[in-house]
């Protein structure tokens, strides 16, 4: 027995160092050369990501302003900015509007519409598919300033295209339904990403599985639920993670409603711009940014955990 | 990568302004080779857009004449104009970021009311520090009235040269008044008369009888062409003897008037106050004959409905646009016991402390305010009230509205307090009007305003009760 167990022990001991060396130094460069390779990237990350983030943390603790005496000589005020942000109704209003914006335009709008288009076009070839995909992608790649202008022209009360089409006179869509307007806009704007991602994901579902399900008499919905979804679960979560965070931090609504009327479409990104740059409260704005950063981290960690547990 | 970039982008944008602090300052007017001095001059004016005439004047007259004059002195100076054509609030944000990062044009235009906060931030400096004794001995000072000099003065030091002053009046559309059977020489004597006139206009089918700016979208235009003239009419100044006007009766009276106009009476259009481009639309609608009465400054006459180059041209301006003084709530109830009130402001022009050639920049600055430049600028129907009495005497003759303002309105006008916290108080006032337009009662809006004001001015002790 002792002899029988010793060979595997030996193998393990001889194999182990090699394995460790592989995991530490796969390319065989050695610690210093590998460090030199990674240094430029790490330096860029430090300058453009880590330093600004730390700087914002610091600014959030001061009464720094864009103009006035506090611009020349900011004072550290501790957690005052954070406390006043958390006690400020407009901040919570913006947070709630952002949640609506993310759920409405990203989770329901872009994922729903993107998946639907990808599913409907999965087996199609030819001009129809190319035209639909082309139009959806066009909405995605046009510059924000251009599409915002087009949407204002579409929804404007005075001579807007939508009113002309529906014959609704001078109905002010952007004032009566500001959140709905930017949710529909952002759904239109961002669906392409989800559509392409799901299009690629659906291509990975083995046709034989779908075929067997059909032979077993599964309905369309049952095929989706029992064959397709289990295959693309990882894609769905990754997609949700990305577009939730993008939408959460999206500033384009500003170009359509400017946060108005009366703060009714002032999502957090717009709120920060307004308090920090328009009202000049850079310190307070930095504190709100820090809170946004934390919310983003929580959302990211939530999705990543979900993703890991599925695997 | 996209994820990382985006999730921190908000943070990064904010931090950028901080980063630039550490960056070394450098003027945009870098000197070129061969002894050429390059200067830049910036205004919120752009050819074919906002304040087009001012932009053209700088490009077509100031720059060539100034360069020629310098050449005659043996200096090779090149001047470049940096245009903008945006809302004043955006111009201010851009300018403050420029100045904060040690950049910006050599000669810049600012609103008089920004002087305090810019000076405290160190973004502008006393002219004599930058340009030397020439700044204090400038020949123009003797021609500028004390009150107008006050616009450019902060803590007893002159930070800029005033470009001019202005006044606010009630404009009305004579054709609409005729339709409603109202007189062409209308002059209301109380707020009630304005409301009654509005009701008659409404009965005659005028879509928007009264437009008095409200809400936050219009920014300072709400405060200056709305709250403050009305507040003066209700007998209060926004700041008097160091104490700010809180939720006092005059403030409630003002908010009450807003409620009477926008709270469902149909006398005003609440949507114009809420839209992102509401003020521009109000200009357009007045020019199209949809607005009966409009409270605006003389800029409206000169720059908006100007038949030649306004942003909402009215070919028949001189015949169809009437104007009247702004009445107090009731005769004798305005500030200083006046029957009529107004508010005045004025823009300033100064030398950027980051300029590499401050002396030449001051020469350019002074040149734009020389009598010959002002006369040239105000030629051909482009008259405005300049800071210089010697020039005004000549150019205002034959300009009915500006003569009206300089003779009737300026003697009873008031100025905003030149303190750094004013712009924040102004925003609080705008928010109070926005709340009323949005359906809150004047009392609720006044209470919320008082609360915000206490946070801004350092407690209830600095608020007049």
Automatic annotation (TrEMBL), chain A:
Main location class: membrane
Membrane topology listed for this record: Multi-pass membrane protein
Subcellular location: Cell membrane
One of the record's GO cellular component terms: plasma membrane
InterPro entries with a match to the protein in the record: MetI-like (IPR000515), MetI-like_sf (IPR035906)
Location of the ABC transmembrane type-1 domain: 96-303
GO BP term, example: transmembrane transport
Keywords assigned: Cell membrane, Membrane, Transmembrane, Transmembrane helix, Transport
Coiled coil (UniProt feature): none
Transmembrane stretches, start-end: 37-58, 101-122, 134-154, 282-304
Family (UniProt): Belongs to the binding-protein-dependent transport system permease family.
Protein name (record): Sugar ABC transporter permease
Organism lineage string: Bacteria, Bacillati, Actinomycetota, Actinomycetes, Streptosporangiales
UniProtKB/TrEMBL annotation, chain B:
Listed Gene3D superfamilies: Periplasmic binding protein-like II
Keyword Signal: yes
InterPro entries: Bact_solute-bd_prot1 (IPR050490), SBP (IPR006059)
Keyword Electron transport: no
SUPFAM superfamilies, sorted: Periplasmic binding protein-like II (SSF53850)
UniProt keyword annotations, A-Z: Signal
A Pfam family recorded for this sequence: SBP_bac_1
Signal peptide: 1-23
Name of the protein: Extracellular solute-binding protein
Naturally occurring in which organism (per UniProt): Nonomuraea montanisoli
């Amino acid at each position: 027995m002792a002899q029988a167990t010793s060979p595997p022990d030996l193998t393990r001991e001889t194999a182990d160092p090699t394995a460790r060396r592989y995991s530490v130094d796969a390319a065989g460069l050695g610690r210093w050369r590998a460090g030199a390779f990674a240094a430029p990237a790490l330096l860029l990350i430090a300058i453009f990501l880590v330093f600004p983030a730390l700087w914002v943390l610091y600014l959030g603790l001061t009464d720094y302003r864009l103009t006035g005496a506090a611009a020349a000589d900011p004072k550290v005020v501790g957690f005052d900015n954070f406390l006043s942000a958390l006690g400020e109704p407009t901040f919570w209003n913006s947070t709630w509007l952002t949640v609506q914006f993310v759920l409405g335009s990203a989770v329901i709008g872009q994922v729903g519409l993107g998946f639907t288009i990808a599913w409907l076009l999965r087996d199609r070839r030819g001009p129809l598919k190319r035209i639909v995909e082309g139009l959806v992608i066009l909405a995605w790649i046009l510059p924000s300033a251009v599409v915002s202008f087009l949407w204002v022209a579409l929804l404007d009360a005075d001579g807007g295209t939508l009113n002309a089409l529906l014959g609704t006179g001078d109905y002010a869509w952007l004032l009566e339904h500001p959140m709905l307007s930017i949710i529909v806009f952002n759904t239109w704007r961002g669906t392409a990403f989800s559509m392409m991602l799901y299009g690629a994901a659906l291509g990975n579902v083995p046709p034989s599985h779908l075929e067997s399900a059909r032979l077993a008499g599964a309905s369309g919905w049952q095929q989706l639920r029992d064959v397709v979804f289990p295959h693309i679960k990882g894609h769905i979560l990754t997609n949700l993670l990305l577009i939730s965070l993008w939408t959460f931090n999206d500033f384009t609504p500003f170009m359509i409603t400017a946060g108005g009327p009366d703060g009714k479409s002032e999502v957090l990104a717009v709120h920060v711009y307004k308090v920090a740059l328009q009202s000049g409260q850079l310190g307070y704005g930095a504190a709100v940014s820090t809170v946004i950063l934390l919310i983003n981290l929580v959302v990211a960690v939530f999705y990543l955990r979900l993703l890991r547990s599925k695997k | 990568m996209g994820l990382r970039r985006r999730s921190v982008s908000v943070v990064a944008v904010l931090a950028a302004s901080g980063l630039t602090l550490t960056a070394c300052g450098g003027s945009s007017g870098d000197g070129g080779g061969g002894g050429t001095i390059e200067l830049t001059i910036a205004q919120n004016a752009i050819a074919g857009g906002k304040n087009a005439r001012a932009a053209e004047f700088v490009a077509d007259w100031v720059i060539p004449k100034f360069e020629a004059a310098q050449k005659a002195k043996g200096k090779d100076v090149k001047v470049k104009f940096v245009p903008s054509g945006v809302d004043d609030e955006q111009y201010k944000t851009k300018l403050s970021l420029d100045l904060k990062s040690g950049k910006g044009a050599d000669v810049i235009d600012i609103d008089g009311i920004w002087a305090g906060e810019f000076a405290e931030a160190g973004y502008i400096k006393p002219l004599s520090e930058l340009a030397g004794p020439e700044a204090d001995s400038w020949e123009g000072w003797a021609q500028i009235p004390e009150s107008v000099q006050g616009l450019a003065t902060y803590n007893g030091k002159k930070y800029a040269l005033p470009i001019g002053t202005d006044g606010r009046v009630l404009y009305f559309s004579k054709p609409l008044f005729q339709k409603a059977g109202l007189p062409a020489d209308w002059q209301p004597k109380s707020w009630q008369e304005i409301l009654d006139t509005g009701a008659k206009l409404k009965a005659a089918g005028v879509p928007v009888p009264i437009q008095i700016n409200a809400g936050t979208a219009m920014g300072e235009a709400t405060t200056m062409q709305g709250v403050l003239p009305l507040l003066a009419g209700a007998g209060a100044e926004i700041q008097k003897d160091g104490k700010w006007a809180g939720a006092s009766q005059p403030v409630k009276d003002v908010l009450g008037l807003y409620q009477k106009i926008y709270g469902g009476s149909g006398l005003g259009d609440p949507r114009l106050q809420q839209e992102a481009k509401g003020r521009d639309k109000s200009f357009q609608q007045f020019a199209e004959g949809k607005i009966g009465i409009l409270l605006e400054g003389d800029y409206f006459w000169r720059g908006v409905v100007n038949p030649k180059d306004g942003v909402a041209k009215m070919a028949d301006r001189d015949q169809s646009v009437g104007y009247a003084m702004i009445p107090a709530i009731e005769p004798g109830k305005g500030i200083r016991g006046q029957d009529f009130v107004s508010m005045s402001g004025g823009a300033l022009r100064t030398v950027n402390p980051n300029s590499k050639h401050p002396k030449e920049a001051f020469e350019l600055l002074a040149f734009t305010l020389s009598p010959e430049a002002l006369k040239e600028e105000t030629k051909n129907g482009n008259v405005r009230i300049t800071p210089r009495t010697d020039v005004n005497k000549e150019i205002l003759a034959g300009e009915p509205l500006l003569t009206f303002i300089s003779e009737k309105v300026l003697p009873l006008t008031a100025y905003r307090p030149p303190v750094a916290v004013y712009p924040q108080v102004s925003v609080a006032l705008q928010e109070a009007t926005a709340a009323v337009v949005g359906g809150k009662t004047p009392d609720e809006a006044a209470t919320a305003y008082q609360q915000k004001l206490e946070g801004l001015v350092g407690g209830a002790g600095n608020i007049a009760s």
